[in-house]
Amino acid sequence: MTFRLANQRGRAALQRGAGLFDLERHSDGKFGSDPMAALARHAELHAVARSLDDRQPDGVVDPAALEACVPRPQKIFGIGLNYRDHAAESKMELPRLPIVFTKFPNCLTGPAGNVILYGPTSDWEVELVVVIGSRGRDFAAADAWRHVAGLTCGQDISERRTQFATKPPQFNLGKSFDTFGPIGPAVVSVDHFANPDDLGLTCDVNGERKQNARTSDLIFPVSELVAYLSSITTLEPGDLIFTGTPAGVGAATGTYLKEGDVIESTIEGIGTMRNVCVAKP
Fold first, then answer.
1. Which of 162, 207, 215, 255 is least buried, going by the fewest C-beta atoms within 10 A?
2. Segment 79-106 mean pLDDT
3. pLDDT for 176-193, tens place per residue?
4. Is the dihedral of CA 66, 72, 73, 75 positive or negative?
5. Domain count along the chain
6. Mean pLDDT, the chain, whole residue set
7. Residue 170 has what pLDDT?
8. Gap between the Cα atoms of 181 and 259, Å rounded
9. Last residue of a domain, which of 43, 65, 87?
């Protein structure tokens, strides 16, 4: 039985259709309320999800109450130029190895959280996000999917002026402003997908389609990214990998996010996030 792990008002919950089942209650206390602890035991979530057939949900999904489905990852990796069409629109050569930067965990917000604009060149980037489920290193690419707890949708919001303020450019800070990492609406187990390497993803801004691609177009697929990163650092349950964005970012046309803009990000089999852009307080 597949699972969808959500975080509603700080409590781990399994989603079945529109219903939400509090994980602590419906596991009869075998799990607590912390989503991070649940991810570290992701293999056991399948049995809990299976037991929900004869149970009544505690409530329905409230998008406004959903928080980041992975609230406190130790590490967040981003991958640059991982779609050929994005490399082309950026006028950059295709990478021979993954281009890796980091996003700091303070950037995370939920699937309906506001995105605060900290500058005039804030940009959208819809991405498939990988949620690590096993602690370890030196994972083989052939075994990499076994170490993934699930997948979710993400936006790698980027303040381009900060990102390219120095030469050579340094990506980390321009992508780590508070609220610059919406994720959600849930962590979806890998077995939910017929082919987790081929998922459609789109990004709309104010109802206008900006990005439209499939993850089968990734230059470095998920298995290679997990293997590469684990060859360098120990991966922990809940670590996130933003796998890269396809063509259609605002920087390609000099069009950036403005106060009041609505970003809708959708990934096949995962769901949709809706984030409103607001001015810096």
1. 207
2. 93
3. 999 999 999 999 999 999
4. positive
5. 2
6. 97
7. 87
8. 17
9. 65
CB 100 within 8 A of CB 232: no
* Whole-number Å distance between alpha carbons of 277 and 113: 9
**Three-class SS of residue 264?**
strand
Q: How far is it, in rounded angstroms, from Cα 130 to Cα 77? A: 10
Q: What number is the average pLDDT over the span 5-21?
A: 97
The answer to whether the CB of 188 falls within 8 A of the CB of 4 is yes
Q: Which of 272, 267, 117, 107 is nearest to 201 (CA)?
A: 267
CA distances from 39 to 31, 198, 260, 272 (A): 11, 23, 34, 21
Shared domain for 82 and 59, answered yes or no, is no
Q: Please report, for the chain, how many H helices and E strands are present, in that order.
A: 7, 18
DSSP labels, 62-77: -GGGB--SS-S-S-EE
Which pLDDT tens digit goes with each residue over 94-152? 999 999 999 999 999 999 999 999 999 999 999 999 999 999 999 999 999 999 999 99
Note if the bond before 168 is cis, omega within 30 degrees. Answer: yes
Beta bridge partners of 275: 263
Q: Please identify which residue in the block is written with the tokens 């936006």.
A: 155
Amino acid of residue 281 = P
**Residue 142, Cα to own-chain centre: how many angstroms?**
22
Report which residue type is found at 158: S
| Helix, strand and coil percent figures for the chain, each rounded to 5 | 25, 35, 40
By C-alpha distance, which of 254, 113, 241 is closest to 180? 113
Question: So what's the pLDDT on residue 92?
Answer: 81
Domain termination site, one of 65, 84, 101: 65
